[in-house]
Amino acid sequence: MRESRESTLAGRRTREFEAFVAGAGGRLLHVATLLTAEPSDRCPRAQRLLVGALAHMYAEWDRLRGEDPYDRTRQELVTRFARSAWRLHRRSRTWDTGAECGVLARLGPQERLVVVLRLYEGVPEEQTAALLGLPVERVRALGTRAVSLLRSTRPPRLRAPSWTGHRTDTP
Predict the structure, then answer these.
(1) What is the pLDDT of residue 94?
(2) pLDDT of residue 12
Protein backbone atom coordinates (compact mmCIF):
# COMPACT_ATOMS: atom_id res chain seq x y z
CA MET A 1 0.00 0.00 0.00
CA ARG A 2 2.76 2.40 0.96
CA GLU A 3 4.75 1.55 -2.20
CA SER A 4 1.72 2.32 -4.33
CA ARG A 5 1.32 5.75 -2.72
CA GLU A 6 5.01 6.56 -3.16
CA SER A 7 4.96 5.50 -6.81
CA THR A 8 1.86 7.67 -7.37
CA LEU A 9 3.62 10.67 -5.80
CA ALA A 10 6.76 10.03 -7.83
CA GLY A 11 4.70 9.78 -11.02
CA ARG A 12 2.93 13.05 -10.25
CA ARG A 13 6.23 14.74 -9.48
CA THR A 14 7.68 13.54 -12.77
CA ARG A 15 4.63 14.71 -14.75
CA GLU A 16 4.71 18.14 -13.08
CA PHE A 17 8.41 18.52 -13.78
CA GLU A 18 8.05 17.38 -17.39
CA ALA A 19 5.23 19.90 -17.90
CA PHE A 20 7.43 22.63 -16.44
CA VAL A 21 10.34 21.73 -18.74
CA ALA A 22 8.03 21.55 -21.76
CA GLY A 23 6.70 25.02 -21.00
CA ALA A 24 9.85 26.81 -19.86
CA GLY A 25 12.68 24.79 -21.41
CA GLY A 26 12.94 26.82 -24.60
CA ARG A 27 13.16 30.16 -22.83
CA LEU A 28 15.62 28.79 -20.27
CA LEU A 29 17.80 27.43 -23.08
CA HIS A 30 17.73 30.86 -24.69
CA VAL A 31 18.81 32.45 -21.39
CA ALA A 32 21.66 29.93 -21.13
CA THR A 33 22.64 30.60 -24.75
CA LEU A 34 22.75 34.35 -24.09
CA LEU A 35 24.87 33.79 -20.99
CA THR A 36 27.40 31.62 -22.80
CA ALA A 37 27.29 33.82 -25.94
CA GLU A 38 27.14 30.79 -28.18
CA PRO A 39 25.21 30.83 -31.45
CA SER A 40 21.72 29.43 -30.98
CA ASP A 41 22.24 26.63 -33.51
CA ARG A 42 25.42 25.35 -31.78
CA CYS A 43 25.30 25.73 -28.01
CA PRO A 44 26.81 22.75 -26.17
CA ARG A 45 27.92 24.83 -23.16
CA ALA A 46 24.45 26.35 -22.82
CA GLN A 47 22.86 22.91 -23.06
CA ARG A 48 25.18 21.52 -20.37
CA LEU A 49 24.43 24.53 -18.19
CA LEU A 50 20.68 24.03 -18.59
CA VAL A 51 20.80 20.27 -18.03
CA GLY A 52 22.73 20.81 -14.78
CA ALA A 53 20.26 23.44 -13.58
CA LEU A 54 17.26 21.25 -14.47
CA ALA A 55 18.79 18.22 -12.75
CA HIS A 56 19.23 20.31 -9.63
CA MET A 57 15.65 21.55 -9.89
CA TYR A 58 14.32 18.02 -10.28
CA ALA A 59 16.09 17.03 -7.07
CA GLU A 60 14.62 20.10 -5.30
CA TRP A 61 11.15 19.85 -6.90
CA ASP A 62 9.34 18.61 -3.77
CA ARG A 63 10.85 21.39 -1.64
CA LEU A 64 9.66 24.34 -3.76
CA ARG A 65 6.77 25.10 -1.40
CA GLY A 66 4.92 27.53 -3.66
CA GLU A 67 8.04 29.17 -5.11
CA ASP A 68 8.16 29.89 -8.83
CA PRO A 69 10.13 27.05 -10.45
CA TYR A 70 11.14 29.32 -13.36
CA ASP A 71 12.75 31.85 -11.02
CA ARG A 72 14.54 29.12 -9.09
CA THR A 73 15.81 27.50 -12.29
CA ARG A 74 16.97 30.86 -13.64
CA GLN A 75 18.77 31.48 -10.34
CA GLU A 76 20.46 28.09 -10.62
CA LEU A 77 21.48 28.86 -14.24
CA VAL A 78 22.98 32.17 -13.17
CA THR A 79 24.83 30.60 -10.26
CA ARG A 80 26.23 27.80 -12.40
CA PHE A 81 27.26 30.22 -15.15
CA ALA A 82 28.94 32.57 -12.67
CA ARG A 83 30.94 29.71 -11.12
CA SER A 84 32.02 28.27 -14.46
CA ALA A 85 32.81 31.71 -15.90
CA TRP A 86 34.97 32.54 -12.91
CA ARG A 87 36.88 29.26 -13.22
CA LEU A 88 37.37 29.82 -16.96
CA HIS A 89 38.44 33.40 -16.38
CA ARG A 90 40.93 32.44 -13.67
CA ARG A 91 42.40 29.65 -15.79
CA SER A 92 42.82 31.56 -19.02
CA ARG A 93 42.81 35.19 -17.84
CA THR A 94 40.83 35.92 -20.98
CA TRP A 95 37.24 35.23 -21.73
CA ASP A 96 37.69 34.60 -25.43
CA THR A 97 37.45 30.84 -25.87
CA GLY A 98 37.02 31.02 -29.62
CA ALA A 99 33.66 29.26 -29.42
CA GLU A 100 31.74 32.38 -28.58
CA CYS A 101 30.34 34.34 -31.46
CA GLY A 102 26.91 35.45 -30.26
CA VAL A 103 25.75 39.02 -29.89
CA LEU A 104 26.90 39.22 -26.26
CA ALA A 105 30.34 37.67 -26.86
CA ARG A 106 32.11 41.04 -26.47
CA LEU A 107 30.86 41.35 -22.90
CA GLY A 108 32.54 39.89 -19.87
CA PRO A 109 30.74 37.34 -17.68
CA GLN A 110 29.39 39.86 -15.13
CA GLU A 111 28.23 42.26 -17.82
CA ARG A 112 26.54 39.41 -19.64
CA LEU A 113 24.79 38.30 -16.46
CA VAL A 114 23.51 41.82 -15.82
CA VAL A 115 22.31 42.31 -19.41
CA VAL A 116 20.50 38.98 -19.53
CA LEU A 117 18.87 39.39 -16.13
CA ARG A 118 17.98 43.08 -16.44
CA LEU A 119 17.15 43.51 -20.11
CA TYR A 120 16.09 40.07 -21.31
CA GLU A 121 14.49 38.66 -18.17
CA GLY A 122 13.31 41.99 -16.68
CA VAL A 123 14.65 41.32 -13.18
CA PRO A 124 14.77 44.54 -11.09
CA GLU A 125 18.18 45.99 -10.18
CA GLU A 126 17.78 45.15 -6.49
CA GLN A 127 16.98 41.51 -7.19
CA THR A 128 19.81 41.27 -9.73
CA ALA A 129 22.22 42.72 -7.18
CA ALA A 130 21.06 40.27 -4.51
CA LEU A 131 21.26 37.33 -6.91
CA LEU A 132 24.80 38.22 -7.98
CA GLY A 133 25.96 39.33 -4.54
CA LEU A 134 26.86 42.80 -5.79
CA PRO A 135 25.87 46.31 -4.68
CA VAL A 136 23.07 47.91 -6.68
CA GLU A 137 25.46 50.64 -7.88
CA ARG A 138 27.81 48.02 -9.32
CA VAL A 139 24.92 46.34 -11.17
CA ARG A 140 23.89 49.72 -12.56
CA ALA A 141 27.47 50.47 -13.67
CA LEU A 142 27.88 47.04 -15.29
CA GLY A 143 24.58 47.47 -17.12
CA THR A 144 25.50 50.93 -18.38
CA ARG A 145 28.91 49.77 -19.58
CA ALA A 146 27.46 46.69 -21.27
CA VAL A 147 24.78 48.65 -23.10
CA SER A 148 27.32 51.20 -24.32
CA LEU A 149 29.57 48.36 -25.57
CA LEU A 150 26.63 46.75 -27.36
CA ARG A 151 25.63 50.06 -28.94
CA SER A 152 29.17 50.65 -30.19
CA THR A 153 29.25 47.22 -31.78
CA ARG A 154 28.41 47.60 -35.41
CA PRO A 155 27.18 44.62 -37.40
CA PRO A 156 29.43 43.65 -40.29
CA ARG A 157 28.58 45.48 -43.47
CA LEU A 158 27.47 43.42 -46.38
CA ARG A 159 29.38 44.13 -49.50
CA ALA A 160 27.26 45.57 -52.25
CA PRO A 161 27.71 43.96 -55.64
CA SER A 162 30.05 46.01 -57.75
CA TRP A 163 28.60 47.78 -60.72
CA THR A 164 30.79 48.00 -63.77
CA GLY A 165 28.83 50.74 -65.47
CA HIS A 166 27.87 48.61 -68.44
CA ARG A 167 24.28 47.65 -68.96
CA THR A 168 23.78 44.44 -70.81
CA ASP A 169 20.02 44.69 -71.10
CA THR A 170 19.89 47.89 -73.23
CA PRO A 171 18.18 47.53 -76.61
Answers:
(1) 43
(2) 86
Angle 44-50-52 (CA atoms, 0-180°, nearest 5)?
105
Residue 86 contacts residue 109 (beta carbons within 8 Å): yes
For the stretch 119-142, pLDDT in tens is: 999 999 999 999 999 999 999 999
Residue type, 9: L
Q: Please report which confidence band the pLDDT of residue 15 belongs to, taking 50, 70 and 90 as the band edges.
A: very high
Q: Are 110 and 116 in contact (CB under 8 A)?
A: no
- Rounded CA-CA distance 14/59 in Å is 11
CA 148/CA 154 separation, integer angstroms: 12
Which H or E element spans position 50? helix 44-60
Helix (H) or strand (E) holding 91: helix 69-92
- In whole angstroms, give the CA distance from residue 6 to residue 2: 6
Q: In one letter, which amino acid is 11?
A: G
Give the separation between CA 150 and CA 169, rounded to whole angstroms.
44
Residues 6+ apart with CB under 8 A from 101: 37, 38, 39
